[in-house]
Amino acid sequence: MLIVEHFPVLVVAISLLSAFSILIAGWRNKKSCAFISIATILLQLIMAFFILNHVLTIGTINYWLGGWAPPWGIEYLVDALNAYVLVIILFLGLLCAIHSKSSIEHELPPYKVVSFYTVYQLFITGLCGVTVTGDIFNMYVFIEILSLAAYALVGSKGGIALRAGFTYLVMGSIGACFFLIGIGFLYAVTGSLNIHDLSLLLPPLYGNKVVQAAFIFIIVGLGIKMAIFPLHTWLPDAHPAAPSPISAMLSGIMIMVGFYALIRVLFTLFPFYYNYGLILLILGLLSMTVGNLFAYFQNDLKRLLAYSSIVNMGIVATGAGVAAYILSTVAEPQEALPEAASLAMAGALLHIFSHGAGKAMVFLGSGNIHAGIHTRDLAKMGGIGRDMPYTSYSMSVGLLSLLGLPPLLGFWSKFLIIMSVAKAIQSVGGVVLVITFILLLFNVIYAAAYYLKVTKVLMIESGAVRTHEVAFPMVFSVVAFALLCLIGGLFPLPFIRVAVRASLVILGGG
Fold first, then answer.
1. Cβ proximity of 272 and 324 under 8 Å
2. Across residues 355-362, what is the average pLDDT?
3. Please, which residues bridge with residue 194 across strands?
């Protein structure tokens, strides 16, 4: 085996070992915790780039843990889809860890620093594990690892944050139980937990009531993890309560990993005639509409951004729903994959990246502002850009990217999804796609109202108390994200190509 073919397991194992190293090193020197975490995630990111290059140029990596061949052993399977998601996870995780080096001093008491970085590294471990595993029960185990870490991180501030963390724990535990029950049902009828093996065993059993029940449990369970409407109720409380780097990770990548797990399971194991394309379309459009209505009336910046995450989760679900809905109308989609379907899924996958970068940036920026003037109230942030120019200008770039303004990265992901629906109306037709197009355009335009409102408050209005720019690590992270949104928007083709390759993998076209 090539050395790079060992990287999928090393990405997970090194992160897990690092969590224990942080705990031990923190007893002697608390300042070492941030450096160990940053160095670990940087090493993981380098490995992830090598993995992505390998799968794009050579092919899929299949790693059998302990040398046990699937379906008996656990398999780590990395293709263009999860290699792409892995790079996003670790890039966001690295910048959030750099930001936390200074921001945690403002948001948590000193005695919680060691436990914060220990749990944060476990959180990264869970995210990576969900992404690289090819075993559905192993996926559940890693979802539990990242979820338990997330519950602790959300409640780490204490006080009212404990209530938000408890709500998240209850909802997350219900979601995990539903997912586990679905896995149990699939195992009961097939005797296998390997995702590829399940894809071969399930086709004769699609009419089985147990398999159909598993389908429902998996959608509900992972829908809670995605914070899709109406399973989103934990998210508006969790985001404002969590430290800013954790809000950035929850919104920027954790709910998107829930989406990855859902499409990996649905598109691999279940046939399109189950009509989950229509289910995803309905849930996505509802999430966009409801999230936008709530977001507009928020005065708490982090709460506004939390509802915005529900909106963007709806956009991603809509893109995947359009792809599945189109394929449900094609007799042999694997032989002639419609262009509109691959375009829709590519747009959804690109939006994972554009939303992750833009939303992580504005959450980190809100942490910078809170460190400077100790408020999340928009009414008290008027003209903060005069005293915190790097933070405010970077946040403005992030907000405009989330809005979908060219030439920023967020424009291209929304453009691909809207164009895919337009092409689908021409080729497939139907009232469903027409309604989808209208509601999608309405929500994209409506979201501009509160994104521009926040930008106006930061850059034009007045009323904020005098302050100064925050520490360099906090500024560095938001500026880096702003540059990514700008460069990605000006030179989008490399990102679009990778998203298209990833979409072909999950849709069965390559």
1. yes
2. 89
3. 135
